[in-house]
Structures are given as structure tokens and as C-alpha cells.
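Consider the record:
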Amino acid sequence: MPVWLREYSWRQTPSLVYLAVPGQGGRRLLGRPDIFCAERYLKVSAPPFLFEAFLWAPVDEARSTARLQDGAAFFTLRKKEAALWESLLAEEVDKEKMQRIREDAVLKAHQRAKEETEAKAVRKRERSKCALEATMKLEEAERKRIEELKEAERMKATEEIEKWKKENEKQKKLQGKGRFHPMGEQHEKSEMRSSGRGASRAASRRLGVGSSGNMFSEKLQEELAPAPRRAGSIQLSFTPRVFPTALRESRVSEEEEWLQRQAEARRAINADLAELEDLSEEEKNPDWLKEKGNKMFATGNFLAAVGAYNLAIRINNKLPTLYLNRAACHLRLRNLHKAIEDSSKALDLLTPPVPDNAQARVKAHVRRGTAFCELELYTEGLQDYIAALKIEPKNKNIEEDAEKIRRIIQETE
């Protein structure tokens, strides 16, 4: 029961009320008391102490303040209307009116808190919007900067290409002048060439100059037209796998064991592939095998159903329904550990949990829980049944089975 505080001291001005609420019997108000202030209602809760006041006139709770000092609560209440009160507390307040004032105060407080929360959300959205706009502006500026850099590089590359073209044309013109002479120059220098023609031919033969009379231009043409590449073949050889660690640091026995396991795995895969190649097209279809296993399960031939599910899982090991059906067969055959293993594998494949696979997850939990209970692991089985109930809370059968398991656990304890 709370200890009601009846003692208080107060004084007032036309616009303010000063109120002090000390502890009782010399005991202090410790911790951070819960203070609730409304227009006509004031409450201080500092367990085990409780103070409640129904004020004479309304106050402005938004502009009123409270503080805790020396184990007492001090309030500065601002009046809504400037006037002197005859008393701090209202007179002739019955229980119904007190309850109505409390409810109104709580309702207004909730409404005010809701408005403040909405205002905070609006401010947060505005800040996020401003931050997003600023980020978009920065990204746009960065994009423009990158585009400008690209354009500058593009212009630079274009200028270099144009410069190269001009240099190439200039070089071609120089080569043309060295190879051909205008008719005027040939006529003026015909007599000079006729006198020294014999000597020049002999020199040309010695130097290897062609009929054009320009040795450097012919060499340049040969350099501009390289010979085609010769065809050939390259021999490749692959070295066997070698562990990268040094011999003194390696573990030879473990490495040999690893290589042996790899070789056995490859042989097993090759054997499976060779065996699957002998199957018909229907037998290579996991859905057809699943239907076959379901028919065998319905007739009570659980071993044959397990064989069909095994072959289907070898073809496609990512279908949770195959593991669920095989778990049901193992339950009938009392292979309880295998049933637990298949149910767990089905739950691993049924991820993420969505409404479409809810029914399959319920079956997996129930079958694994049943196998646990058959092994007298009732606590683990109850956990699976509770997990199934979380998925299907209205399933009466699962709820009744879970209650039976609880009773068994209680009797065992």
C-alpha cells in the first residue's frame, strides 16, 4: 500500500504558485519520482510515497516546473488566470469528480504526447528530406565534375589525334617530294643529270637504291608494312597439385588423407552419375519419384517409399518435401534418429519462414517433436510442439498433444 503524503507548504502570487512536498516522518523522496501535472491535477509518485492534489484553479502545465532538492519536491505552477486562490486544493470534490479529473488529465496527457510524437516525426522527415536533397546536390555536383573531367580528357585526346594526323600528312608530303620532282625542275636539271647519269647509276647499284632514286623512302615503306605473323602452336602442360607449404611445415599424413578423401568423393560422384544414366526419363524426375513414394506410403510399404525418396534426394537434394516425407516413413519404421535428422534438414531448407511454407514447417516441427518424445526426450519434443503452435495457434490437435507432453514432464519431475 502507498504512503499518502498529507503535509505540504505553499504560497502564491497573482500569477504563480510555489508548492513544497516533503517526505513523511523525516524520510526523503529518493530516486527520480514520477511527476504528473495537468490543469487541475497534480500527482507525485516516489514509492512508497504518493501525493495527489486537485487544484483550486487551472494552471499552465507546459510552463510549470518541478525539481527535487534535499529529499523534497518543489513546484512552480503558473496560473492560467492571474488571481489569488482561496486555497491550494479544490473544495467539495467527490470520488466521481476526482476520477473524472484523473481520466481527463491522463487523456489530455496522452493526446499531448501523441501530438509531440507526430511533430517529432514530421521534423525528422523534414530533416531526412533536407539531408537527401543535400546529398543529391553533392552527387549532382560530383557528377558534373566527373563529366567535366571526362570532357576535358576527350578534348585533349581529340587534339592529340588531330595533331598526329597533321604530322602524318606532313610526313607524307615530305616523302612525296623526295620521290617525285616537278616537270620544271626536271627540265632545268636535265643537262646536269645527263652528265652524271652513268656515275649515279653505278653508285645506286653499290648503295642498293631502287629505280625511284630515294633509298630512305623505300626503307620507310618497308617499315610501314610489316610482314604477316607466322602461324604456330604452343604446347601446354599442367603440373599436379602440390601443397604450397614447405615440407618442414606441412603435415604429410593429413595432406595424404585429404587427397584420399577427395579421390573417394570423385569416385562416388562418378558412380552415382553412372548409375543415374541407366535410369529411365521418368525415374530421373524427382516429382515422379515423390508421387511414387507417396503411393507406396499410402499402401503401407514404407521401405519402398524410403527407397523412392532416397533416389529423388540424390537427384535433387534441395526439396524440403522429400525430407519431410522420408521423416514420416522413418517414424513408421521406428528409425527415430533418422526422422529427427530429416526433419531438421527440411527446416533448414524451409528458410526464410514465409506464409507459403508455414504448413510444411508445422509438419517438420511435429514430426521431429514426435521422434524426440518416442526417444523419451520430452523437453526437446515440447519445444518443437510449441514452435508448431506459434505457427498455427488455433490447431487443437497440436495443443492437446503439447498439453499431454507437459503432464508427462510434470509427472516425471
